[in-house]
Specification:
Order of helices and strands: HEEHEEEHEEEEHEEEEEEEE
Shape: globular
Largest sheet: 5 strands, mixed
Strand content: 35-45%
Number of domains: 2
Helix content: 10-25%
Structural class: alpha+beta
Number of helices: 4
Strand order of the largest sheet: 11-17-16-13-14
Distance between the termini: 27 Å
Oligomer: single chain
Length: 283
């Protein structure tokens, strides 16, 4: 699978950080942080292309354990909604642990539009997706669109400009709402640094979102030999709701893998623990 060059991931993270510093956080979370905060769309003159950090959702794992994970991609676009969907359909994830089930060659038939509380996505007829993956594949699209829009507007799906009753065995005759985030998204994930980022200054700041028991986020850092060199515990802003977390780790120059994970109050008796990783270089 083709990989995006690392500097684009770093650039996307920089754009995201700049937006957060400026206070441009999407209001789409409202009372439900299941829709993660994203840089809010800013007004621009029609037809003016800007580079934006757009959230794009991919899949981690397979079968019943499959979950959506977002990446922020740096995208030049005149239209964040069309740009985000084009990125989803045409660009593989930065993180090699992730994948997409959208068939190769799928493309937009027309630009994405929004009105009357509905976002309309018109795709050229895509290839097949296995029935067991179809629902989550559609949710990749819904979450990507809603993240770029900063809203929870449902998504009307057209194929070659026409409504269709079903796609891959899924009912798409009506606008598709986002599925329950607690059953759909990875419950703890890193947003920054991006996969493959190079970080200077000897200190790595890690931020992301989690919906975890008692707001407890466990973390560890392994060096290139697999040895744990740092570990600790941080907390998200709220327990059991998607909310932000942040921590810093002093590290000497080298290559590292950062892991964040939920706590396991069951002591191994429950479902598998959810975790996310990032590989970074400290210069």
């Amino acid at each position: 699978m083709r990989r995006r060059s690392g500097h684009l991931g770093v650039l996307a993270a920089g754009l995201l950080a700049a937006a957060l510093v400026a206070g441009c956080v999407g209001a789409g979370g409202a009372g439900d942080r299941g829709l993660p905060s994203s840089p809010a769309p800013t007004p621009t003159a029609p037809g003016v292309q800007e580079q934006r950090a757009l959230p794009v959702y991919y899949v981690l794992g397979d079968g019943e354990q499959a979950r959506l994970v977002r990446e922020f991609h740096a995208v030049w676009t005149t239209d964040p909604l069309t740009g985000a969907v084009t990125e989803l359909l045409g660009t593989p994830p930065q993180d090699p642990d992730l994948h997409t089930d959208w068939p190769d060659g799928t493309a937009l038939h027309a630009p994405v539009t929004r009105g009357d509380g509905i976002v309309t996505v018109d795709v050229a007829r895509p290839g097949d997706v296995p029935a067991e993956r179809a629902a989550l594949t559609l949710q990749q699209l819904v979450y990507t669109v809603q993240g770029a829009a900063g809203s929870t507007d449902p998504v009307r799906l057209l194929v070659d400009g026409e409504p269709v009753p079903t796609l891959w065995g899924q009912d798409v005759s009506r606008p598709i709402p986002r599925a329950d985030p607690y059953a759909t998204r990875l419950l703890v994930q890193i947003d920054d640094p991006a996969e493959g980022a190079t970080v200077g200054g000897g200190t790595v700041t890690v931020s992301g979102e989690a919906a975890v028991f008692e707001a407890t986020v466990l973390w560890e850092v392994r060096d290139s030999g697999g040895t744990v060199v740092r570990s600790g515990v941080t907390t998200s802003a709220e327990g059991m709701r998607f909310s932000p977390f942040r921590f810093t780790v002093p590290l000497p120059p080298g290559s590292y893998e950062i892991t964040v994970a939920e706590d396991d109050p069951s002591g191994g008796e429950g479902r598998p623990v959810q975790r996310d990783t990032r590989r970074v270089t400290v210069a």
